[in-house]
Amino acid sequence: MKTKEIAELSVDELRSRKRELRHEIFNLRLQQRSGQLEKPSVIRVLRREAARVETFLTQKLKAAQS
I want to staple 31 with a disulfide (CB 3.0 to 4.6 A). Which of 15, 18, 37, 59 is the partner? Predict the structure, then answer.
């Protein structure tokens, strides 16, 4: 998901997307531990996307408080 697309999401959508990403990262870690994960770089990509989502979520919550 591109940064522009993430910026257009609402707070509830950002929370939902963050939850989905964290769940997916968890599942990939389990696959990695069992030796079934073929592309370990996917974990890094998802972690970075989760961080982007968290950043926009924080910005939107701070803007709503002001």
Answer: 37
For the chain, what is the domain count?
1
In this structure, what token pair is assigned to residue 66? 């002001």
| CATH number, residue 60 | 1.10.287
CA angle 54, 64, 19 (to 5 degrees): 25
What does pTM read for this prediction? 0.89
35: left (phi over 0), alpha (psi -120 to 50) or beta: left
Domain range enclosing 26 = 3-65
Q: In this structure, what token pair is assigned to residue 65?
A: 């408080």
Dihedral sign, CA of 33, 49, 10, 8? negative
Average pLDDT over all residues of the chain? 96
